[in-house]
Amino acid sequence: MADDKIFYITTPIYYVNDIPHIGHAYTTIACDVAARYKRMKGYDVHFLTGTDEHGQKIQTAAEGKGITPQQLVDKIHLNFKNLWEVLNISNDDFIRTTEPRHIKVVQAMFKKLIDQGDIYKGTYSGYYCVPCETYVPENAMGPNKTCPDCGRPLTIMEEESYFFKASKYVPELIKFYEEHVKAVMPKIRYNEIMSFLKGGVKDQSVSRTSLKWGIPVPGDEKHVIYVWFDALINYAAAVGYLDDPEQFAHYWPHVRHMVGKDIIRFHCVIWPLMLIALGVNLPVEVVAHGWWTYNGEKMSKTRGNVVDPFKMVKEYGLDPFRYFLLREVPFGNDGDFSELALVGRINSDLANDLGNLLNRTLQMIKSYRGGLVPKCVGAESELSSMAANVLERVDEAMNNFAFDEALKIIWEFISRANKFIDETAPWKLAKDEAQAERLNFVLLNLYEALRFSALLIAPTMPDTAKKIRAQLGLNENEKLSYENFKWGEGAGTTIKKAEVLFPRIDINEWKKLQEEKKMSEELGVRNEELKNEAPAIEHEAEISIDDFKTVEMRVAKIINVEEIPRSKKLYKLEVDLGYEKRTVCSGIKAFFTPEELNGKNIILVTNLKPVKLCGVESNGMILCASVKKDGVSEQLTLLTPEKDIPLGSRVS
Fold it and tell me: Most CB atoms within 10 A, among 55, 254, 425, 570?
């Protein structure tokens, strides 16, 4: 295969301690669409994704669960594998940084750089973000010495460290970027990287002694290789850097990385500097996309507005979700996720445009030609001429990772096919036998427009493309190729029953349902808040009625209150039971004055064993109800008889 027909594309490897969200879905779907497109163009494609499984956060989380880090990552990396299955991702490989094939390459590269003098030992001191596992230069800090990425407070750390001589190779990297202006995309990110490089890059700390969960430095195992240095190497490890030089030589010269803009410096500065030092060619392109907001707000777990891709697929369908993500926002820009906008796309682009074109065309072929796609002399039309131009324009857009632009071009063609129906009015032609050949021409062109549309949308909406081909009477599992498509070859095919591709969503009913869901969620949140606010109820062990009968409680009156000099909590109370008087010590001084207590009728437990408190013998206990917070009483109420009742009366 010619070198220009090889395509190696990677997602970033995702940190397993994250919950898969729309950002993960967006990057991976974009890579999937690019990979599927290139396969249909006849390329030898290798599509890699995976998980980053080392670092402090994993170590801490595992300790909190009482398991080993390996046990933890073995379980939670499946969150991403499961999501890729739900999203119909066609990756060729899935790499984990805890796999032997990766660890072996990381240590080999590290040792090579040590041996050639590009990694040396020193001491590092600086501001460190534990959640992001990175040191932050002072000129990059957020307000009040916070991390510019996550906003959390930074910690000053000093430790022995190995350093990579990044500064040594900066001039060579600048020269490379000046000669390859598409090596960083989009242009705004290229400018950002060039500015950063020309501002100077310090040698990079590439090991830690404060961390245990990571790959040991070869020959110095008290050091663990820095998680970012470790993670970046996955791209080379996965295609045989050590074990399969032939595979590496085949794919590596054609590697493209797709990442979020927040990690672009690692991929466009640190990683290429490492590769230059190792004598390995640099990525052809690093493509950085923007961030998603939700209804205009930054997504946050605490706000509860993080978009769950599992939920979106369940509610709206996989292909509409894939289509919306890539159509809504120019790739590289920040985007706003709105369910209302998603519903709008489903109703307009998918149901009205594509769905109606399929339904109307198949119904007419069934009604006017018994379900058999007619043949005609010469099938070339405005639609067939437009199709050739569409392929060229889509190819240019896809080569620039301009997914939204490619989809716009495809929908221009779909809209033109719908207009073709209105212009040719097949229902009128069907009434005139003299127009039979003209009707054959129209129906064949509409059928071919659908066959072509299924081909165009297959990378973005593979399941929908299969459904369309099935209704067109074609093999839905046939390997699709842009090069093999020839206009007019569908003549003579017997179509299947037309079925609705995308049911329209009643917008008023949808809005009503959203309000109900919102109210339900708010009620659920409030119930949870009330649940959290409610004091924890501690119950004693169950007793029998006979046990309860052994407690003797009687009505008594407080007839005198004295302070006990040696106590801040106790009062010395004299109580009258009618048949006798007793002295009782009670820890209620903080809640009542003597005046409030004198003359009060109370309930007294009378058969407790006497006990000395601060030198005073207490013979009984008065009953109170209390409200406690953190085990401390904040409010106290005496239990008193509701009505006047003779002193000494038994309470039962």
Answer: 55
Q: Minimal CA–CA distance to 258: which of 415, 103, 70, 26?
A: 26
Dist. CA 233–CA 613, nearest whole Å? 71
As given in the structure block, the two tokens for residue 200 are 């100077």
Measure the CA–CA gap between 164 and 170, rounded to whole angstroms.
12
User: Residue 522 corresponds to which tokens in the numbers above?
Assistant: 């708010």
Beta pairing, strands 571-576 & 581-586: antiparallel
Measured CA angle at 128 (ends 126, 132), to 5 deg:
150
DSSP string, 296-341: TEE--TTTT----HHHHHHHH-HHHHHHHHHHHS-BTB-EEE-HHH
Q: Which residues pair with 560 in a beta bridge?
A: 574
Maximum Cα–Cα distance across the chain: 122
**pTM value > 0.85:** no
Question: What tokens were used for 611?
Answer: 């006990």
- The H-or-E segment that residue 275 falls in is helix 271-278
Q: What is the distance of C-alpha 602 from the center of its chain?
A: 61
At residue 522 the predicted structure's pLDDT band, cuts being 50, 70 and 90, is: low
The CA-based angle 34-351-384, given to 5 degrees, is 65
pLDDT in tens, 186-244: 999 999 999 999 999 999 999 988 888 999 999 998 999 999 999 999 999 999 999 99
Which residue would you say has higher pLDDT here, 517 or 168? Answer: 168
112 vs 241: CA distance, rounded Å: 13
* Strand residues in 63-209 grouped as ranges (E): 93-96, 119-129, 134-136, 155-164, 184-185, 204-205, 207-208
Distances (CA, A) of 609 to 210, 494, 619, 621: 58, 98, 7, 10
Cα–Cα dist 383/487, whole Å: 10
Q: What is the pLDDT of residues 395-427, one digit of tens each?
A: 999 999 999 999 999 999 999 999 999 999 999
Is 237 within 8 Å of 250 (Cβ atoms)? no
DSSP state, residue 167: G
The span from the CA of 346 to the CA of 353, in Å, is: 10
CA dihedral (626, 630, 631, 632) positive or negative: negative
CA 40 to chain centre: 29
Rounded to 5 degrees, what angle do the CA atoms 285, 286, 289 make? 130
Among candidate residues 93, 15, 8, the one with its CA nearest the CA of residue 49: 93
Handedness of CA 645, 646, 647, 649 (dihedral sign): negative
Distances in Å between the Cα of 354 and the Cα atoms of 110, 207, 408, 447 are 53, 54, 13, 13
Residue 272 CA to residue 120 CA, distance in Å, equals 19
Query: Could you tell me the two tokens for 581?
Result: 């008087």
Q: Residue 118: what residue type?
A: D
Pair 156, 136: CB distance under 8 Å: no
In angstroms, rounded to a whole number, what is the distance separating the alpha carbons of residues 217 and 107?
7
> Which DSSP letter does residue 587 get?
S
Tokens for 319, please give them.
Answer: 């292909």
Higher pLDDT, 299 or 128: 128
224/158 Cα distance (integer angstroms): 15
CA distance 233 to 586: 71
